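User: I'm curious whether this sequence folds into something compact or stays loose and floppy. Could you predict its structure so I can see for myself?
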Amino acid sequence: MIRDKYTIERRYINKRQNVRPGTRLTSRTPGFLVAHDTGNPGATADNHYTYFQNLKDRSASAQTFIDDKKILEIIPAGTGSDPAEKAWHVLYSVTTDNKLYGDDANDIALGVELCYGGKINTIEAYKRFVWYMAYCCDKWGLNPLTHIPSHKQLDPARKSDIDQALATVGKTLKDLLYDVVAEIKEQPVTIAPPVAVQMPASVAQRLIDDYVSPAWFVAHKEKDQVGLSHFHNLADNLRMASGIPLQPGSTAPFKLLHKSNAQEIIFRWLSPEWYTAKSNGDKSGMVLFNNFANHLRRAAGMPVE
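Assistant: Here's the prediction. I'll summarize afterward.
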């Protein structure tokens, strides 16, 4: 999966028994993940941080809140350097979690909350939620299809999350689980750079004869030492990019043409020639100069046009 697709922000609430007791999960690493939604449409991850930071009159919390802008861990979840700690997100008196997973969700699972509704772009929040679930499953070897129950599944008499939030974007719990599986399987798109191709010697010699050498003679006439050196090197680079020996009798293995050399020749000489041919209705000339430019691009490992 793409592990750096999103950033996980860690900003922990203070330790207090009713929200963050500060004790580690008894399983050490999470044994499963409980999919929640906040049940508070429009409230962001930051809003929930503030709420639980100040909560005093009851026991409740979760490790992670996710909206359309951020993934925010307010209690250590074990994704960073801090070990996973308990949060109060499923009632101990409801025993479905014990029957399914052998222990209480608060003691061995993460509570992950999806923020939705109001001004929150729930589709974007959902994408981050899916990625975070995938990240956790991948990190701890959990099967998304069996180890991501919803809060509703664990406490059906009282709860309707995460289904109520998913319904606002046309998703079901089954969709969520398969989206997490797909996220785990997603791989970065790699674009292989173009392979450099040796330029035909006839093209290189034509470019030297028609453009580089005349420019060298102008520099020589004007006693421009910088220009003399530059155009001499440019000609040699074209020779090496086409296998033309620099000295009689020597061998000349292909050497990648500098991109700056290719771009200079194209913009200094070939592009003006192409536009002149176009204005004169000379289609064969347009093709010729475009082909020269593409030979240069290939020799420099650049995409052709």
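Summary: The mean pLDDT is 95. The first strand starts at residue 8 and ends at 10.
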